[in-house]
Design a protein that fits this description.
The protein has 757 residues and is an alpha+beta fold. It is built from 11 helices and 39 strands.
């Protein structure tokens, strides 16, 4: 700090008296206003001042942290303070570590644009970066700072990171383990012993995580308590690190104690609000069982939900474990403090920059004036997720007093307009592409409008559809569509013009029904070598009309439209044709999808999915060939071309061969397929996931004569990419047919866009 007070010293050399201040000026000061700066002085215009007072004023200004330098000049009673302000940080960059992670800049570096350059803050940011890297198990990291002054006077700060080395855990020893198998501890701890081929999926790579190290002994203790060892003591691990090889050995000292069984389960309600018998019905812990802390927590949550559904929003379930060390028994006491009943005062909606408030509110099962219910709250979250309009949603409970609360619904809008793409690559058909445009939430109204102009190697489809899932915000829905399509099956092409209209009704939170009518006119096109007589009846390929009614019922308890992690869907529909038109059949479609989030079991956001479909058609007079079923492709058996798996008949003019014979595919009257999938997070920031799958299905036709194969079962497996792109959800599937047979048309790659995962 430079202080130029030459005039002061000359003045006091010639006189022993202070001089009167005639004026006070500030030069170069931006961050403090003149009025504030004047108030900070211990003197004002007209006062007598000396050098010590000016020196104190300069120090006071400097301590504000805005300036690199301050000095003062005094001339004929005119006092002027000069300020050299610190530079403003306009850019913050990371190199060598999480370069494009904005969250790291906010939470770790903590230097925002527009803040003043401060060496102390820079050093603190460096320490936080090194600490964050060390939490990832890397040591000896180095962070350098490069400061670049820009033309506008601001500063660009670049943190150049040289990441250290990861520590690999070579060996873990457990002392004092007798009642349990120490190998089972791998199920709960984060820091695991390195295994051979640890880089392979499902194997332990042994990389140390310092962030989790302090909790691993608590996880082991919790594992003991899940097996009744209530007195177990697990010391913090002792780590012996070799910094030459960046390896480490670890050891745990464990005192197990005795295993406890449950002598009694007691319910104690501070205020009786529900029959004890109803509470005991939801409790899984029973007398004589080995105590399990995990089941104890689950039972506590069940009790809390049961009481909270009676409007006791602030209920507390306090655990009390009364141990008898001599008998190694424990009495489990659930102490329930229900509090008071709570009413909803107001429901506030935020974050819906596009979707109308009423579209959000009609999915909520709690409204102003309602009594609180925890189940209603959870179901409301799931209902918002099933809309598919939002990336995320939360409902916060804002306590007003002991009797009232506000609910704050926060949503984050997701793109609902899709450019729908689909296609694939097959060993026979080559590249297939299709395109369409739709919006499931047009103008934020919840109305679904779609226009499709699809063209691929096997299909053409031009359509318009509009549907409203909540007509006039009621439980009724409505839809209307017109379309023209052509689908090229393996042996012929169908041309269809049609119209459909229908209405539905939501009977409960999870159950909905639908009834609709459709009419279509259908024609066939064949190649020059096609011979319809080999199919048994030529009328199978005559132009026909179809007039049909469809009735369906659906159950949906999932928590999200595109990427559910819990719940299941079950659907059953019946289509009856023959209402004044040529086609006459009864078609049944049954679908079932189950979703299980695996986070609580394996520690990361994996999802298990099981999907099954059973379709059947009954001949009531005339089943056109195009109305039968075919398998292959996304939605049934991946690894095979779409519509390529089918019963076949002998046809000398056919183009495909099977067991040395030329054949045609004629479709089946029954088909069953199922898929098992596991979806893993790949790049969470980019909303990318990896999925692995195994598909199996069977198709049959017990009516068609001269079948080469009366029953067909096929399987496929593979992996794919699921991506929530800015233009909608995309699936890229790489599949391989499992033991394909002669004549099968396999497909190695398929993709789709806009579909539910």
């Amino acid at each position: 700090m430079k202080i130029f007070l030459i005039l002061f010293f000359i003045f006091f050399t010639h006189t022993l008296f202070a001089e009167v201040v005639k004026s006070i000026k500030f030069e170069g000061m931006v961050h403090i206003s003149k009025s504030v700066a004047l108030r900070m002085l211990s003197f004002e215009k007209g006062d007598d001042i000396d050098v010590e007072q000016v020196d104190k004023a300069i120090k006071k200004y400097f301590n504000q942290g805005y300036f690199n330098d301050i000095w003062a000049e005094f001339d004929n009673g005119n006092l002027t303070f000069y300020f050299k302000e610190k530079a403003i940080i306009s850019q913050v960059a990371l190199k060598g570590w999480k370069e494009n992670d904005d969250d790291v800049k906010d939470t770790v570096i903590q230097l925002k644009k527009g803040t003043l350059y401060d060496e102390k803050k820079i050093e603190a940011a460096k320490k936080r970066i090194i600490e964050a890297i060390s939490q990832e198990g890397k040591i000896d990291s180095v962070v350098e700072v490069k400061t670049t002054y820009l033309d506008n006077g601001s500063v660009k700060v670049t943190f150049i990171v040289n990441e250290g080395e990861e520590i690999t855990i070579e060996k873990i020893d457990y002392t004092g383990v007798y009642g349990l198998d120490s190998d089972d501890f791998d199920e709960v701890i984060a820091n695991k012993e390195h295994q051979f081929m640890g880089w392979f999926w499902g194997r332990n790579d042994g990389k140390m995580s310092l962030r989790d190290l302090e909790y691993d002994n608590l996880r082991i203790r919790d594992f003991y308590m899940q097996h009744g060892y209530l007195d177990a003591i697990v010391d913090a691990p002792f780590v012996r690190a070799n910094f030459d090889s960046y390896t480490a050995d670890m050891s745990y000292q464990i005192t197990e104690g005795k295993q406890y069984t449950i002598s009694k389960v007691t319910i104690y309600q501070v205020k009786q609000v529900i029959d004890d018998a109803k509470i005991k019905d939801v409790i899984s812990l029973k007398k004589g069982d080995i105590f399990n802390i995990k089941r104890f927590r689950e039972d506590s949550e069940k009790i809390k939900t049961l009481i909270a559904d009676k409007s006791y929003a602030f209920v507390q379930v306090v655990p009390d474990l009364q141990k008898n060390k001599e008998k190694q028994t424990v009495e489990v006491v659930f102490k329930i403090m229900p509090g008071d009943k709570v009413k909803i005062r107001n429901v506030l909606v935020s974050g819906n920059t596009r979707t109308l408030d009423r579209v959000v509110r009609r999915e909520l099962y709690l409204a102003p004036g309602d009594m609180y219910s925890l189940t209603d709250l959870k179901d409301s979250r799931n209902a918002l997720g099933r809309l598919g309009f939002f990336d995320s949603n939360t409902i916060e409970e804002k306590r007003i007093d002991n009797h009232t609360m506000d609910l704050v619904v926060k949503v984050k809008e997701a793109p609902t307009g899709n450019i729908q793409l689909g296609g694939g690559y097959g060993s026979y058909g080559g590249l297939l592409l299709s395109i369409g445009v739709s919006d499931r939430n047009v103008w934020g109204s919840g109305i679904n409008v779609g226009v499709k102009a699809e063209k691929s190697q096997t299909s053409k489809n031009y359509s318009f559809n509009i549907s409203n899932p909540r007509l006039n915000d009621s439980d009724f829905s409505g839809n209307f569509s017109v379309y023209h399509s052509s689908y090229e099956y393996n042996d012929y092409t169908t041309l269809t013009d049609g119209i459909s209209i229908g209405t539905g009704h939501r009977f409960s939170r999870h159950i909905s029904g639908y009834i609709g009518y459709s009419y279509s006119r259908n024609d066939y096109e064949f190649g020059s070598d096609f011979n319809a007589s080999y199919y048994g009846n030529t009328y199978y390929f005559e132009s026909y009309s179809k007039s049909s009614m469809t009735v369906s019922m659906n159950w949906d308890s999932t928590d999200d439209y595109y990427l559910p992690r819990e719940g299941f869907t079950l659907g059953q529909s019946f289509e009856k044709s023959g209402l004044g038109a040529d086609a006459d059949f009864l078609k049944s479609r049954t679908t079932f999808n189950k979703y299980i989030g695996l986070d609580e079991y394996i520690g990361f956001d994996a999802i298990f999915r099981y999907k099954a479909r059973y379709y059947a058609i009954v001949d009531n007079g005339y089943i056109p060939l195009a109305e039968k079923f075919y398998m292959g492709g996304i939605g049934s058996i991946r690894g095979y071309e779409s519509y390529s798996i089918s019963p076949m008949i002998y046809d000398p003019s056919g183009t495909d061969t099977y067991s040395g014979k030329t054949i045609r595919r004629v479709g089946g009257t029954q088909t069953f397929s199922n898929n098992v999938e596991i979806s893993f997070p790949l790049i969470p920031k980019a909303k990318m996931r990896l999925v692995t799958f195994v598909d199996w299905g069977i198709i049959s036709d017990n009516v068609t004569k001269d079948l080469v194969a009366n029953n067909l079962s096929r399987a496929g497996y593979g992996m794919g990419l699921e991506w929530f792109s800015p233009v909608g959800p995309i699936q890229l599937m790489f599949a391989k047919a499992l033991n394909p047979k002669e004549g099968d048309k396999t497909s190695n790659f398929e993709f789709s866009m806009g579909q539910r995962f």
